[in-house]
Design goal:
The complex is a heterotrimer. By secondary structure, chain A is α/β, with parallel strands linked by helices. Chain A contains 19 helices and 13 strands. Chain A has a five-stranded mixed β-sheet. In chain A, strands 10-11-9-12 form a four-stranded mixed β-sheet. In chain A, strands 1-2 form a two-stranded antiparallel sheet. In chain A, α1 packs antiparallel against α2, α8 packs parallel to α10 and α18 runs antiparallel to α19. Chain A is globular. Chain B is flat, with a radius of gyration of 23 Å. Chain C contains 13 helices and no strands. The N and C termini of chain C lie close together (7 Å). The N terminus of chain C is likely disordered. Classes of the chains: A alpha/beta, B mainly alpha, C mainly alpha. Chains B and C meet through α1, α4, α5, α6 and α7 of B and α1, α3, α4, α5 and α6 of C.
């Protein structure tokens, strides 16, 4: 942080220069320690005259006013030397990272970390607006493997070159492949996940059922009906129902794949009215109606985690990352009775399943690239994994990123699901074939920029069908029309 | 007989009023209580009315985010935006109330209509403007925006207050040779002070609770309390108690402020717009 | 408005037109606010108009160029658009009816004297100070959650099946939550207005043998008309732009059951990053806001000029 007296002196100087219409970098700008990047204290004084005269005068007036009131307010947007602004999501693993980041600051005393922790939706909209308008408010972004290749191709991300000590070959190959464009890494994985089935061993034992290692969706439905006990608020099956491309559509896409359906054919014609989509969605709606919790349309990953953790769900098909949380007695009532199995299979039985990673990346517009890379290599390193193991226990370490984590006997002991998750991630096959050939990549999403729009719209339509507002057929017809509009508008489909 | 009936009536009225008051206040009370529970307690069914109060959620909230940073931003932004808006609206309301022209009414209506635009419709333009002027993630940026969004309502409120000031008093001042500046500062403002105060209070409340611009235009340095809340809503794991604690922290200052100033708010309103 | 006797005599607005010099002075005093608001409303408006005829998607830089009226066409032929308009009307109308109706009754109730009146009043106006994001989170998670919610527990306690409010009756539930936020404001304003009603006048009416209902109908209600207009106007301004409550509780769903115009634009702008489409929506919203403003403000103005 900048000392306010310095700031004031600087502002005074700056105001004076403005007065004389000398527009240049004020003399009080701090030199960055590496000398590579210069950062102004609070005002982008580097910017020279731009815009037409009235616009310029307007800008100047506003800035002068801004300067004045900043004297009253103290520091403005502080981008002092060596300060990294990190935008991250408020998931459990990231909260741990923030807690432990003091260690990084200790070993890098000239780097100060500035955290912006937001919930996923808000984070995504903030980060996307920021990078697409090149506003440069953040030096490190937390983004998914959906964004990384798209943004990298648009030149929005800085290419990374971690050194040998970082051991990039230790990253799980399928995860690493998702972050690589033209042979260059554009983000480093913080944690990664695939999909699996969680179930309550005690409820299964009581009902005299056994969960196969690789259940089918028919079996899941039978089990759900048997263990549902609404009077005691035990719901046989919990699934994502909250609308959103990263919420219910992640699950539904993965479900449709194993039912043999897909989003588009090779000519980018939407295929939502196919028999496979209908079968998958009918299964989803009827199963949740029969054995799902009330309010299923508001349940995303977090809500279901809370439901399962507090003992209200019999089974739950969702991200593998829940394992670390459900097996942790500090966070879960059912830590002793959770069982797990592979994600259920549909009639097709193959197809891409699910691969998501939360990654740290650096916007190309950042002026602190070198420092930022120091931090993200630290936060995704083997040492960081060991640090979490030391402070929070092995069960809480970020999962799904490093082979060395899975090789560690301590982790295998603390996390009984470890090798299972490893296999699930290895076999997620995000770019593998669907039943019919497809023009797009991605397992539980479609790796095109338009998918956020499409997924948001269809997610709402699916939720409407789940809440009983529309029938499955109606919902799919609406979804087909809506997706067709969007791909037409964007020129994908002629 | 009638005395007894009057007493019964009083009891009935008191009972009804208290029932309504408690029913309306209950969600807030429940939020405060939940903030003092452990996470498992917070989602137990049926909910526990009696529990061991704990500060663990508060501790965790404070450990995770620098509450005071957000709270100070909220205070600074609300206070400054309210002062700026009052300073701008006093002359405007004065002109409308005492020097009306043909277009006064039209101007007032136009001002109010600017307030009816949904902010989300102009988000991208405002974002780009803010970026161009270096006002992203700056308190100044939010102060400017809040001043401008609240200005129409404040001009209109002050206008109604000023219209209640007897013109002869102002005229008397003018007879004594008061300049317009003196007329405003020494005659009008003292008379309209309760109204101005309640206008300012209302503006403070509106600024404090605004969540759209604050979430979209700030990230860390200038982020006020709505951003603080956004880091506690729906994270992974159990969060009801932490969310309640964080919500209580975000709401408490303005709630206490509202309670303390509600008499003033009412006094000002009585004086003007709604008498 | 001057029916109340015994108040400071208040002159009507000056009758003759002020002199030229004074009018110039008036314009000068008015100008800072007017100029700032002009800039504030026109610059973004111009930019919005410009973007609304462009192909502009934040996440897809391959979409560039002139779109003509394409964005408008996509918006206006979108079946969701009509639903959103209707939902906006229901939300604004529903909340206004509840807050003004209930607010008037409660204002009369809280005007009576009863033990602990001061505290009860403070409690009843509290929700107005709670930020919309927090009240939405509070209602969604702590009150109405079908499993953990207090209301669900109460329903179970009396042997009923808890209702899944937000997915069964999304719009009605939102009207309820937003009414909870704005009812205190209505009570505050209306209570203030009732208190300014002359005690003597009420007493006189009582002496004339008017019962409580007649008093309410012939004395209180007419006196409140101006305060009610104030409530309607200020609330409408905020209700047209209700956003945080929807985004937190239902995200506009299920389907588009609780999507209002502001949320529809938001989902175009920030969930789909289609700036062109969102800008077209913004322009439409601006047109609608101005139509509403024209109608409403004219009605209000008549009442306020008195």
């Amino acid at each position: 942080m900048v000392h306010s007296t310095t700031l004031r002196a600087c502002l005074k100087m700056w105001a004076g220069e403005r007065e004389r219409n000398v527009v240049k970098r004020p003399a009080c700008v701090f030199e960055h320690r590496s000398g590579a990047a210069l950062s102004a204290v609070s005002i982008e004084a580097q910017e020279t005259r731009v815009g037409s005269p009235p616009a310029r005068i307007f800008k100047q007036t506003l800035r002068r006013w801004a300067g004045l009131s900043m004297l009253v307010l103290g520091a403005g947007p502080a981008h002092a030397a060596g300060t990294l602004t990190i935008a991250t999501v408020n998931n459990a693993d990231m909260v741990v990272m923030k807690q432990l980041s003091g260690e990084f600051e200790k070993s890098h005393p000239d780097i100060h970390l500035n955290w912006v922790t937001l919930e996923e939706n808000v984070l995504r909209q903030r980060v996307t607006t920021d990078i697409a308008t090149r506003s440069g408010q953040f030096d490190i972004l937390t983004i998914g493997n959906y964004e990384v290749p798209i943004w990298a191709k648009q030149g929005w991300l800085a290419a990374l070159s971690p050194d040998a000590a970082y051991d990039a070959d230790d990253i799980l190959p399928s995860v690493r492949a998702g972050l690589t464009v033209d042979g260059k890494l554009y983000a480093l994985p913080f944690y990664a996940e695939s999909v699996m089935t969680y179930y309550r061993k005690d409820l299964f034992a009581k009902a005299g059922l056994t969960m196969p290692d690789a259940p089918t969706y028919d079996q899941i439905r039978t089990f759900a009906d048997k263990i549902t006990d609404k009077g005691n608020q035990i719901y046989g099956l919990c699934l994502r129902g909250k609308p959103g491309w990263g919420e219910n559509m992640a699950y539904v896409t993965s479900l449709v794949n194993t039912f043999g359906g897909q989003w588009f054919d090779m000519a980018w014609r939407p295929m939502l009215e196919s028999a496979e989509w209908k079968a998958a969605l009918t299964w989803y709606v009827t199963a949740l109606k029969a054995g799902g919790p009330p309010g299923a349309t508001s349940n995303g990953f977090n809500e279901n985690l809370a439901l399962f953790g507090s003992g209200h769900c019999g089974m739950w098909v969702d991200s593998t990352v829940a394992g670390g949380l459900l097996f942790d007695p500090a966070q879960s009532h059912v830590a002793g009775t959770v069982g797990f199995a592979a994600a259920p299979l549909g009639p097709y039985g193959k197809g891409p399943t699910w691969l998501w990673s939360w990654n740290l990346a650096i916007p190309a517009s950042s002026s602190h690239t070198a420092d930022a890379q120091l931090f993200i290599t630290w936060a995704t390193s083997k040492e960081y994994v060991r640090l979490v193991a030391k402070t929070h226990g092995w069960v809480a370490v970020p999962a799904g990123t490093r082979l060395s984590t899975y090789d560690s006997p301590e982790y295998q002991k603390a996390a009984p699901f470890a090798s299972f998750v490893h296999t699930a991630i290895d076999r997620a096959d995000p770019n593998g074939p669907t039943k019919q050939p497809r023009p797009y990549g991605g397992a539980q999403f479609v790796a095109i920029p338009q998918f956020q729009a499409i997924g948001t719209q269809v997610g709402q339509i699916v939720a409407a069908s789940l809440s009983g507002q529309t029938s499955v057929e109606q919902a799919l017809a609406t979804a087909q029309a809506s997706v067709t509009r969007t791909v037409r508008q964007s020129g994908l489909m002629r | 007989m009638t005395r007894k009936r009057a007493r019964l009536r009083r009891i009935a009225i008191g009972g009804a009023a208290w029932a309504v008051a408690l029913w309306v206040f209950f969600p807030i009370l429940w939020m405060v209580l939940t903030g003092f529970k452990t996470e498992p307690d917070a989602i137990s069914t049926p909910p526990h009315l009696i529990f061991h109060p704990t500060l663990s959620s508060y501790r965790e909230v404070f450990a995770r985010e620098t509450y005071w940073h957000f709270a100070l931003n909220s205070v600074a932004i609300s206070v400054l935006a309210s002062i700026a808006a009052i300073l701008l609206s006093i002359p405007a309301a004065y002109a409308m109330a005492f020097l009306p022209g043909r277009r006064t009414r039209g101007t007032l209506l136009w001002m109010l209509s600017t307030r009816m635009l949904p902010p989300v419709g102009v988000l991208v333009p405002i974002y780009l403007l803010a970026r161009g002027m270096g006002l992203l993630d700056s308190r100044t940026g939010l102060v400017v925006i809040y001043t401008l969004t609240n200005l129409p309502i404040m001009v209109w409120m002050l206008y109604t207050f000023f219209r209640e000031v007897p013109i002869p008093i102002l005229e008397a001042g003018r007879m004594d040779g008061a300049t317009r500046w003196q007329e405003i500062t020494q005659v009008l403002l003292p008379l309209a002070l309760p109204g101005i105060a309640s206008t300012g209070l209302l503006s403070m409340i509106l600024c404090w609770n605004e969540a759209f611009w604050s979430l979209n235009l700030t990230s860390s340095a200038a982020a006020p309390l709505p951003t603080f809340i956004a880091s506690f809503s729906s994270p992974e794991g159990l969060f009801f108690a932490k969310l309640s604690a964080a919500s209580t922290l975000a709401v408490a200052p303005i709630l206490v402020f509202g309670w303390l100033s509600q008499k003033q708010l009412v006094r000002g309103l009585t004086f003007g717009a709604v008498k | 408005m001057d029916q109340a006797a015994g108040r400071i005599p208040v002159a009507a607005a000056p009758v003759g037109r002020p002199s030229r010099a004074r009018r110039t002075g008036g314009a000068l005093l008015l100008s800072p606010a007017v100029i700032l608001l002009l800039v504030w409303s026109l610059v973004p408006l111009a930019m919005t108009l410009w973007y609304s005829v462009r192909r502009y998607n934040l996440v897809d830089p391959t979409q560039v160029g002139f779109a003509g009226l394409g964005n408008y066409w996509y918006l206006l032929t979108d079946p969701d658009f009509l639903t959103a308009l209707l939902n906006t009307a229901i939300l604004v109308g529903g909340v206004l009816v509840i807050t003004v109706g209930l607010g008037t009754l409660l204002a009369v109730l809280f005007d009576q004297s009863f033990p602990g009146r001061g505290i009860a009043r403070v409690l009843v106006i509290s929700p107005f100070f709670v930020m919309p994001t927090v009240s939405a989170l509070l209602w969604k998670n702590l009150m109405l959650h079908p499993i953990y919610g207090v209301y669900s527990a109460m329903m179970r306690a009396v042997g009923l099946t808890p209702v899944d409010w937000l997915s069964r009756y999304p719009l009605a539930t939102l009207v309820m939550i937003v009414s909870w936020e704005w009812l205190p404001f209505a009570i505050l304003i209306l209570l203030t207005a009732i208190q300014s009603l002359d005690a003597e006048q009420k007493e006189a009416a009582r002496m004339d043998g008017a019962g409580p209902l007649a008093q309410f109908r012939y004395i209180i209600l007419p006196h409140l008309s101006r305060a009610i207009t104030v409530v309607i106007m200020i609330e409408t301004i905020f209700l047209l732009a209700v956003f945080a409550e929807i985004s937190v509780t239902t995200a506009g769903g299920p389907g588009v059951a609780s999507t209002n115009l502001a949320f529809l634009i938001y989902s175009r702008a920030l969930l789909q990053f289609d700036v062109g489409g969102a800008s077209a929506g913004g322009v439409v919203a601006i047109v609608i806001a101005n139509i509403v403003a024209a109608f409403l403000l004219r009605a209000v103005a008549r009442n306020l000029e008195a």
